[in-house]
Amino acid sequence: MPALRITGRLLLACLLSPGLATGEGAVKLAQTMQAAAIDRAGGPEVITLHTLPVPKPAADEVLIAVNTAGVAIWDVGLRKHPQSIKHSHFPLVLGTDGAGIVAAVGAKVQGFKVGGQVYSYSWDNPHGGFYAEYVAVPAERVGHVPAGLSLRQAGAIATTGLTAIQGIDDALHLKSGQTLIIHGASGGVGNLALQFAKLRGVKVLATASGEDGLAFVKRLGADAVVDSRHGDIAGAAHQFAPAGVDAVLALAGGDTLERCIDALRPGGHVAFPEGVEPEPKARAGLAIVRYNAIPGAQEFQRLNRAIEAVKLEVPIAAEFPLAEAAKAQERVEAGHILGKIVLRIR
Questions:
Q1: Distance between CA atoms of residues 159 and 161, nearest Å
Q2: Are 120 and 98 within 8 A, CB to CB?
Q3: In whole angstroms, what is the distance from residue 219 CA to residue 79 CA?
Q4: E strand spans, the chain
C-alpha cells in the first residue's frame, strides 16, 4: 500500500470540523472553539476554559487553527492587569504568540494560503489571544514557519525570537568580534539571543542561575558563563574582556544587572526589552535603549533566515494542555525556566 502524503491542507482537514467545503481552499469551519480566558483580573485561578465563537477574520487578517501557543511572563502581566491593553473586553483570551495552520484568509490578504504553516506575534490582538483553538490575526503580524522547525517549536518563539534578533541587530547593532553580556541567557528570549549572537560572530558572556542553568547556556554556545546569583560578575567580565565589554543585553533587572553594566567599556551600550524590571539605572555618558519586538513581513523573513542559518535549537522546558493554562502560568511565575513554556492546543 503506498504511503500517504500528509500535506498542510490534508492536515488542516483532519484538524477542523466538520470537513472541507466545496471550492478551492475553502474550509467549513467550526462555529465555536475552546479557549482559556479570564473574566476578571486575578491569580491563575481566574483562567478557565470558555466556549467562544470562532473569530471571523477581517479583510486584512488570517485565521489560524492554533497548534501551540507560547506562555510567558507578559501573559501573567495581562492576567493581572488586563486594563493595560486597549482590547481588554471580557472574556479575554490570553496569549501573544503561537503557531498553527492557516484556516482562512481575508479578501485582501496576500502571501498566505489555507493549509500553510504559520507563526505569529500579536500584542493586544483585537480578536483575543492564542490560548485558543483559533485566532484571527492581522496578516502583517504573521510569518511562514521556517524550514527545520515544527509547529510546536515555532509556537514557542514568535515573540521571543523577534525580541532576540532585534535586540542583537537593531538595538545593539552588534558586529563580528564584539563582546556581549547576556544577562538572563537561559530564559525564553536569552537562549535565542545567545544563539543569534553567536551566528553574528559575537563573543558572549552569559549569566544564568544554578549549575543546570550554567550547563544549559554553555551547551548553547556561550564563550564564558557566570552564576547570576552567586558568581563574581566583575571578575568574570574582566577575564572575558579585560578592556571592557562592548554591550549588555539585559533580560533581567536588579543589582546583578548593574554589575554587568559596570563591566562596559567607555562608549558601550545597553539594551533591554520593555517589561524588564527594575529597569537599568541611567548613567552619564551611557546609551541605554529600551525596545519592543516589532512583527512584520520583513522582520519574520529576517528571523527565518537567522533560524535556518544557525539551525536554531528551541528548548521547551514544559508543555501543558489548553485546559491547564492556569498551571502553565503558575510554572512561569515560579521562575528558573530553561527555555520556554508552551500550551499544546492540538
A1: 6
A2: yes
A3: 34
A4: 19-20, 27-28, 32-38, 47-53, 61-71, 92-93, 97-105, 117-121, 134-138, 142-144, 179-183, 203-208, 224-227, 245-250, 264-273, 287-291, 316-321, 340-344
Average pLDDT over residues 168-194: 98
Can you tell me the distance from the alpha carbon of 137 to that of 121, in angstroms, rounded to the nearest whole number? 9
Quote the CA–CA distance of 29 and 16 in Å, as a whole number.
6
Q: How far apart are CA 89 and CA 328, in angstroms?
A: 23
Contacts for 256 with CB less than 8 Å, ≥ 6 apart: 183, 207, 228, 229, 233
For the CA atoms of the chain, what is the radius of gyration?
21
Q: Which three cell numbers stand for residue 142?
A: 504573521
Regarding pTM above 0.85, the answer is yes
Q: What is the pLDDT of residues 234-289, one digit of tens each?
A: 999 999 999 999 999 999 999 999 999 999 999 999 999 999 999 999 998 888 99
Q: CB–CB of 121/162 below 8 Å?
A: yes
Which has the closest alpha carbon to 101: 40, 51, 53, 152? Answer: 152
226, 159, 144, 142: which is closest to 193 by C-alpha?
159
Angle, CA of 7, 345 and 143, to the nearest 5°: 55
Q: Hey, is 44 helix, strand or coil? A: helix
Cell output for 14? 483532519
